[in-house]
Protein 1
Amino acid sequence: MSKFIIEGGKRLEGEVQISGSKNAALPIIAATILNKGKTVLYNVPDIQDVHTMFEIIQKIGGKINKKHNKIIINTSEIHTYEIPDNLMRQMRSSVILAGALLGKYHQARFSYPGGCEIGSRPIDLHLKGFEKLGINIKEEHGEIFCNTSQILGTQINLDFPSVGATENIILASCLGEGTTIITNAAKEPEIEDLIKYLNKMGANIKGETTDRIEIIGVKKLKEISYNIMPDRIEAGTYLVAGAITGGKVKITNANPKHIETVLNKLEETNCKIKIEKNSIEIEAPKRIKATDIKTMPYPGFPTDMQSIFGALLSTAKGTSIITENIFESRYKYAQELNRMGAKIKIEGRTAIIKGSKKIQGTKVVAYDLRGGAAMILEALAAKGITEIENIHYILRGYEKIEEKLKKLGAKIY
Ligand code: UD1
């Protein structure tokens, strides 16, 4: 399957179950290397990025077994510390394996990671963190070799609260000597989930949900089972699917606390939100109202929801302004939405969005995961048929998106 065909204009209604979080599952799968044994994971999303992570774990000697909703990973026979270049290029989060390999085996070899084209995405903060932990780093022909005889606890202040760098430093140091303190650490819920997982394995990490994380090195980690948190970006996407179609959608297996800023913004657009313990229901007006958005590190508005709201606000009554503060090139989707009748003007990091009533189906091309999701949402609101190409980007991060949208009444093939 390489494209989606969507017949728009259907009001979505019903209930949809949110899958496990992509951005929590990926570092947790990498972290299974640290106990050199078995790990049982539940609520792992069945998406391309997770398949790529499994492939890398298997290539370096790990074993993966799937039994219904249960994934069993055995890392007792890891035999190489080299992450295959072709898989590294497929997915940026493969860089997280470096921290896990260094934490357990004190060496890792990898090339610069790939991933969605949404900005320059350097890994300097990851490498600076490794160096501070006493790791030697050598770069040759685009390859990075890291090794050390021991990981030494230290204090690391991040210039920016990078999610990946925070995770990599935690993974590299949790089996180290002494205590490592990260300041200006990222506070995203996926980091909290990774720390909960590691602590359940026997790690001693404090300060999850704060910007000061303390990692007290332990000697050994044990075999455990763990249930991955729900995907907050997928949750937000289905709520917006309800909002953009003037519909009524209930999402289950969701954590409302993780998307408070998103829910506040949806309320500002005149949608009604009903929150229960693990579910959220949205009831949208016929046409939503404009609002302004600024993306920020958590608990601010998530950059991964920026394009999703770009689509929603392109249908609003009034003009909205979005400011993207995390990744500089995250507006590629706008030109495609404009082909459908949206009125989005990009000026540097700002998008000025004049709401339009005349969104029409046409042929569009996805350039990245969340930009592709924005095109699906726009297509759901559009008159007529939209064809979205390059949907492999979307399938990297959304489990059974076609099936889930169909269940809500969408016409998607
Ligand atoms: C993670 C998420 C991604 C989300 C992003 C921000 C995963 C698998 N991906 O990506 O979905 O959009 O957090 O919430 O969890 N930076 C540097 N140097 C570095 C690292 C980052 O300058 O070494 C910059 C980046 O270019 C970017 C900003 O820091 O401008 C944020 O990046 P970061 O938080 O590291 O995002 P990722 O971990 O790549």
Protein 2
Amino acid sequence: MPDAYPGRKLSARYPTDLPAWQALRTHYRDELRHRSLKELFRRDRSRAERLVLSAGDLTLDYSKNHVTSKTLKLFTRLAKESSVPESIEAMFSGERINVTEDRAVLHVALRSKISDRVALEVPAVRDLWGVLTRIEEYVHAVHAGEIVGSTGKRFRNVVNIGIGGSDLGPVMVARALRHYWTDGMRFFSVSNVDGTQLADLRSELDPAETLFVVCSKTFTTLETMSNARAARAWIVDTLGDAAVEAHFAATSTNHAAMNDFGIRPDFRFGFWDWVGGRYSLWSAVGLSLALVLGFETFSRVLLGGRIMDQHFRLSPLSENMPVVLAMLGNWYNNFFGAETHAILPYDNRLDRFPAYLQQLQMESNGKSVRTDGKRVRCETGAVIWGEAGNNAQHSFYQLLHQGTRLVPVDFLLPATSSGAAQSLQDLAIANCLAQAEALMDGFDEGGLAPHRVHRGNNPSNVLVFGALTPETLGQLIALYEHKVFVEGVLWGINSFDQWGVELGKRLADSMTGAVSRHEQYEGSNASTAALIGRLQELRGH
Ligand code: F6P
């Protein structure tokens, strides 16, 4: 297999063998393991001012982490020794760093300007601006009532049909930017295979005002194609065969399949194999978003991504926000034994951001084999979880404060409200800061009953920004994309494939007949056979 990152001999060494990794190990053991965050603050009065980074509109306060100046120097050395700078250039210049699929990785091109010259020589990169122009024209025509439903009614409802990267990005961004929706347009999504989402929409929406966007990189995904066929049947039942053309648009790399489904050529929007599914919302996968937000607002999300790309590409390693976040992630994961990482946004509009990051981080870095085919010798992707603001406080913060596990935390905190009274956002801010403080300082006054002690010493990052705008959201998403990339480079894994989802898909295919048509179960798993039997009984067969 070709080396993903030319210029470094991946197979020659593991990250754990690097001098900086070993120095970090000694530093952790001798200097940090038994030193509390409170003590670090006592010893270094300027810590709160110094351990802060800016990137675009984002400010990262990482002072409440188990790090000193020495740790940070070692982080930078580790990034250099793992060839992070060369790997960043390899991605931006369009090298085929997704080695198992032999593809370039160019979501960064999708939000670039042509003058940035991001991998322009890679086939089809120059086509992306043409697709954006077609999306812009299409969206304007829908909003202007020039493209309408089969009965002549304007479209009011946009339903994105997709799953994974073809669902989570559009859904997360649509919810986050709810206060930017175009008047009269509403966003819905259908993803799961059980059919209930569409069933609910059928009773809620007027089909004559409903535009379905079938969103699938491959256009073969079981869930998406089942839902798309069910949606088409609903349109045929209610509006007739001829209405299908008017009520469906699609985005995919598979032009033949869009054609077979019956999507009109001018309502098909393509993208390319160098756009990974979970990195695709910047491509035509954002069509449903552009429809509900308006093209200008969608472009502002792309602009935010570009701002973070430039920061990532040009900033020194020690001031590079994605690099620092990645090094911190690795620090807790591989030195402190943390298995999970919580994402806690204090703006309810970001309620799907943790779910979005689950796919981004866990599908990207949930790997145990390196790009040279050998097993890794360190921990890789942490389990990502989280929930928005005070809902999370009233759910699982008990475990953060008094459980036995170390859970590093990222707080996401806008200074201003995303469309409600500022006095309410002030409450959210006070709660966020209080939680970060409580997690660090704990509470253990002499004589306190043990069950009331808060152990404290729990690390957290606080990411602050002025407001949840399209630009800041774009920056946040790209920040985590690049964090994931740097972690993958460090661990020597391919963050851009997802072979681990294949086996389950294949088995599900082979079981459908046994489940729904009483055919013989062909497999040899006794538990599955018994469960199929029990389910049949429950259904009265
Ligand atoms: O879950 C596997 C996966 O391939 C994801 O990587 C992808 O985002 C999702 O399925 C959907 O794929 P598609 O866009 O091809 O329908």
